[in-house]
Inverse folding.
């Protein structure tokens, strides 16, 4: 541990913590850093850090995954997706491919990509094929996708967009009566795009302390200290503990690209439901590259499952901070990174996968939380 990290930890330990304080971290990258650095074990027992809805793979609507499957299997499209999306399970009978990876094994043309620019290159390499880029992610992912749309795209390339804004999920939690938290660690990378000011609503509208953090133990401990001190002093405000990267007002170029590429609409979050003004949809000007316009809609009302998780899976409660990953009934009992049942065990930003990779193998009983 660096001297700076030890400094913040000592400041935290010196605080007069006379009650239990629960702090939620939004970002899957934050959860990974917290778990890998073992920060929970170093904090005073009165401090609880809980993971939140910061994994885009975990909340990608089940019906969007199903649509991607059908485009590859039924429409014979060459489907491209970010690597983590290939292993996310869909609610289907075992006799059918239940993930993009399984569909690929059965003969569908599905390729993992790491960058939106790869989609353009592949489409140009296969001008005779319909190429579909299944783009799921939060603001930091959708900004490069928006930049892609500012270019002249190959006519055979279309996009299946499943992008989400981060803040509406936190707004929903703050407005609900579900397991409450006393402070919020806001996502640093999202703040670099949208600006730290986007999180002002947390202290201003809900009187909950908030701090934007980076991904080092130093930045995270500084944010935890800030949230604790704000709580103890009953003085909630937004603190920027990632000021060297998350600049005031964010990245105006990225924001302009997002506005030009997408409309913001109500959108479904897997396990959570529909949230107002939380989803990115392609603007009408890009209709010729919209996979939902170019191909049949396979997500009929008869099969749409409104974002259900697989039977027995508690990923929704994990995502909403109601339970820890190892309090899911399936954690380690049939649901592992090798054989994931729920989406939280798939991505390296999913809390269940992070905890498993950090060595947590013991399942414990979940507390009773409001539904």
């Amino acid at each position: 541990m660096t001297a700076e990290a030890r400094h913040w930890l000592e400041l935290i330990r010196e605080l007069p913590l006379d009650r239990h304080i629960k702090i939620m971290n939004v970002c899957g990258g934050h959860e990974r850093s917290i778990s890998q650095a073992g920060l929970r074990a170093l904090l005073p027992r009165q401090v609880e850090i809980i993971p939140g809805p910061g994994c885009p793979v975990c909340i990608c609507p089940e019906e969007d995954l199903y649509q991607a499957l059908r485009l590859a299997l039924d429409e014979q499209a060459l489907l491209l997706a970010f690597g983590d999306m290939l292993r996310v399970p869909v609610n289907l009978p075992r006799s059918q491919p239940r993930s993009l990876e399984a569909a690929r094994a059965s003969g569908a043309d599905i390729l993992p990509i790491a960058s939106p620019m790869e989609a353009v290159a592949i489409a140009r390499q296969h001008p005779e094929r319909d190429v579909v880029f299944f783009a799921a992610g939060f603001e930091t992912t959708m900004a490069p996708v928006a930049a892609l749309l500012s270019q002249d795209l190959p006519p055979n390339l279309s996009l299946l967009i499943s992008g989400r804004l981060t803040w509406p999920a936190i707004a929903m939690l703050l407005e609900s009566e579900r397991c409450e938290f006393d402070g919020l660690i806001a996502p640093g990378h999202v703040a670099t795009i949208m600006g730290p000011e986007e999180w002002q609503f947390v202290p201003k509208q809900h009187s909950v302390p908030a701090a934007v953090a980076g991904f080092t133990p130093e930045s995270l401990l500084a944010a935890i200290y800030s949230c604790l001190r704000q709580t103890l002093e009953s003085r909630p405000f937004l603190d920027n503990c990632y000021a060297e990267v998350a600049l005031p007002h964010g990245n105006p170029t990225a924001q302009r690209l997002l506005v030009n590429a997408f409309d913001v609409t109500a959108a479904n979050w897997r396990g959570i439901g529909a949230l107002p003004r939380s989803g990115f949809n392609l603007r009408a000007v890009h209709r010729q590259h919209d996979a939902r316009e170019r191909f049949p809609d396979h997500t009929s009302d008869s099969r749409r499952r409104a974002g259900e998780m697989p039977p027995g899976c508690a990923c929704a409660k994990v995502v909403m901070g109601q339970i820890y990953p190892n309090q899911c009934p399936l954690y380690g009992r049939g649901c592992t990174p090798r054989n994931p049942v729920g989406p939280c065990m798939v991505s390296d930003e999913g809390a269940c996968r992070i905890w498993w990779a950090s060595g947590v193998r013991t399942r414990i009983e979940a507390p009773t939380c409001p539904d």
Notes: The first strand starts at residue 21 and ends at 25. Residues 3-54+167-240 form a domain with the Rossmann fold fold (CATH 3.40.50.11750). The two ends are 39 Å apart (CA to CA). The chain is about 35% helix and 15% strand.
